[in-house]
Amino acid sequence: MKTTSLFARGLVAAAAVLAVGSASASIATWTNWTSIGTNSATGTMGGIDVTVTRLGGGAINTGSSQTVCGTNYWTGTAYTNGTLSNGPAACEQVALNDAMTLRVTFSQSVENLYMGLLSVGQPGVAITYDFSNAFTVDSEGAGFFGDDQTNGVVGAGTLGGGSLTMREFHGVLRFTSPVTSLTFSTNPNENWHAFTFGHVPEPGSLALAGVALLAAAGLSRRRKAA
C-alpha cells in the first residue's frame, strides 16, 4: 500500500508539473540587461545570452537606457493584451533616438521570441522599424506615454521580415520562426524610444521534469518492493 501510494504521489506530482507548464505557457522570461553602451548592449534572457550590436547610424541612447530601476516605463495593458500574461521586466530597456541599424544575437536558437516596444514614435512623428525576421503584433495598447491610434501599420520593409510604422506605440511583437540572429533598423530620429526581448520557454523542458518525477517515483517503488 505504501509503495502504491508513493507511486501515485509521483504521478500526481508529474501531472502537476505538466499542468503548470500548460498554464504558464504565456509567462515570458524577459531580458535582464547588464551592460548598455553607445555601440552595444548585453544581457541574459533566462539562460540565453543576448547581445545587441550597432551596425550603422547613430548611437544607442545610454541616457534613457536602464539596467536598474529609475522609472519603470513598462506599465499599462499594452504588453498583456495578447498571448503573454506578464510584461517586460521593470526598468530594463535599451533606448534609441537616432536612426540606426542593430543586430541582436542569441546564444542559442529561440523558438518563442518576443520584443517589447516602448513609446515608439509620436502622434506627429512616425517611426518605422524594419526587420530581417517575420513577425506579428502580439499585443498593443495604452502605455506609459499614451496609445498609438493607428495600432501600428505593417509594411513590406526592405530587410525581408516586414516593417512596422508606429506613432506612440507601446506593445509586443512576436517572431514566429526560430531566431538566433535578428537585424532591424529604425528611421527617422525621435526623442527616444526603447525595446527589450523576452521568450516563452519550450514546454518540453517542463515535460522532462514530469518524466523525471515519474522515473523517481518508479525507482522508489521498486526499492520499497525489494
UniProtKB/TrEMBL annotation:
The portions of this protein that span the membrane are none
Matches recorded under InterPro entries? Ice-binding_C
Top-rank taxon = Bacteria
Pfam families the UniProt entry points to:
PEP-CTERM (PF07589)
* Domain Ice-binding protein C-terminal, first and last residues per copy: 200-222
Signal sequence range: 1-25
Sorted alphabetically, which keywords does the UniProt record give?
Signal
Q: Which NCBIfam families match?
A: PEP_CTERM (TIGR02595)
Task: Report what the protein is called.
Answer: PEP-CTERM sorting domain-containing protein
The species is: Rubrivivax rivuli
